[in-house]
């Protein structure tokens, strides 16, 4: 081999060895399938990163972002890993999507066995795959869809009892047992936009700007932060367009002062009854948030793992964004995996300020 040929071979090998994708190929990482492909010049084929074939020599390897790029380079799909066919993960995802459509399109919740048979899997394997893809178990997904359907049905003009059965609840009693957690009130009251619901509220000021605290007969139902006090009032009214909103008296303003005191000195705690309204999944996330100690932070990925849904990171972030109880449900203690601050319903600067206060108190302790 000529010196020039040897030098070129070494350069090609170095380029491959220094590419982080080579380590993925060596490890046959299935999670990288679909993210890129690698071709082998000497055989004229391209493969998935997880291909079980014996790894090629690095100087003979090229990387491609898509199948189309590899084929345009004159390569053909490997007959062993079949990179031109859907991956196993993609096949599973398609089956789970079909199962979701089945759940959404039936009046009664299908059993796990029925869904598994339709997907062509054992019940155990289907349950595990469904949770990995969606972040929820089939039962949890079905419950969330039923709750959503109930809200939609109540927007119509039919009888409340019909709405309950149409949403898939087997009896009135089964739904009414959970109605407060699902709707925050009775179905009739929810349909009427919160009519006859009395909500006391007051607006104050704290180091984070304006703060609105609202209380139903079940407990604190909103703690909102912002720059514009009037806008906070409109936000509360939009949530309960026909509720009876009552401005707080001197006694109620003491409760606002208690919340403000907690913001300024988190170490004192906030021992108040809460009126927590949300889906089953949201409530699981919010409960996990309440278990984060003052002065500590966790990632969205951590929360997803804690509630047993490690793939539901995006859904966890959405549940944090839906939280109406600032500081009482401490969604400000959730950060990105690298520790940086992600979005916050009431602004990233307020999130930073809250964390700094809590870190300062934890350090003094």
Give a structural overview.
The protein is α/β, with parallel strands linked by helices and 365 residues long. It has helices at residues 3-17, 20-26, 67-72, 88-105, 112-119, 123-134, 138-154, 160-166, 172-176, 179-183, 187-191, 229-239, 250-264, 280-290, 300-306, 313-321, 348-364, and strands spanning 37-40, 45-47, 61-64, 76-77, 198-206, 209-216, 219-226, 244-247, 298-299, 334-335. The strands form 3 sheets. The protein has a 4-stranded mixed β-sheet. It has a 4-stranded mixed β-sheet with strand order 7-6-5-8, with helices on both faces. The protein has a two-stranded parallel sheet with strand order 9-10. A hairpin with a 4-residue loop joins strand 1 (37-40) and strand 2. The chain starts with a helix and ends with a helix.
List the helices and strands and how they pair.
Layout: H1 3-17, H2 20-26, E1 37-40, E2 45-47, E3 61-64, H3 67-72, E4 76-77, H4 88-105, H5 112-119, H6 123-134, H7 138-154, H8 160-166, H9 172-176, H10 179-183, H11 187-191, E5 198-206, E6 209-216, E7 219-226, H12 229-239, E8 244-247, H13 250-264, H14 280-290, E9 298-299, H15 300-306, H16 313-321, E10 334-335, H17 348-364
Parallel strand pairs: 2-4, 5-8, 9-10
Antiparallel strand pairs: 1-2, 1-3, 5-6, 6-7
Helix pairs in contact: 4-5, 5-6, 7-8, 15-16
